[in-house]
Task: structure prediction
Amino acid sequence: MSALTPPSSGPRHWLAQAKRAWQQHHLSDPAYAFLLEPPPPNEWVSLDCETTGLNRRSDEIISVGAVRIVGDCIMTSERLELLVRPDKGVPGQSVRIHRLREQDVANGLPLAQAMHQLLHFIGSRPLVGYYLEFDVAMLNRAIAPLIGMGLPQPKLEVSSLYYDYKFKQLPPSHQQGNADLDLRFATLMADLQLPVRDAHDAMNDAVMAAMAFIKLRHLSAV
Result:
C-alpha cells in the first residue's frame, strides 16, 4: 500500500467491511444488532464454561462465568454467573471435575435463556479466555439458532498470547518452527506470578484468564 493511500482504503479495512456486511446479512434477529456495533474502547469480556464433557457435538453447557475487563481492571462487580439446566443430565465423571451435580443445575436456566443473557452481557466486546476455542464452539451450538451465526466478536486466546510472549524470549537459535512450550494453565499462572483461584469453576477460571490477559498485555508492551 502506498504511503499516500489512506489507511481506511487498505485491504485490511476492506476485509473488515466485507466481514461486517456478511454478519449483518446473516444476523437473523435484528434485536441482536448491538453485537455488531463497534466495541467500547479498551473493554473485553473474559469467559469460561463448564460442560458435561469434551465432545463439542453431544455434550452440554451447565455453567457460564463471564466478567468484564476495563483497561487494567477486572470488574468483578460486573460479572455474570449462570447455571444451565442440561437435557441429558450430568455424568459422574464430569462432576469430579467441576463439582456440579445434577441437583445443582436442576433449577438452572434453559439454554436459550442463558445465551440471551450472556449475549446482552458481552455486547460487542472482544472475548478473552483460556482454551477459548472449545468454549466458543459449545456456545455457538446454542447461539447460532438464536442469531443466525456464531459469536461475532473478536477472540483473544490467553495461551496464544503467552506463547508469543515466551517465544520472543527464546534465543534466535530456538526460534525456528514451533517452540515446545508448556502452555498448561497452572504453568502459565505460576510463570506470570499470578494468584490461583479454585479451578474448574466457571467464574474463577474467567477471572484467572482475565488476570493473565492483563499481565500479558503489559509484558508484551515492554
In short: The beta strands are 43-51, 61-70, 73-83, 127-129, 155-157.
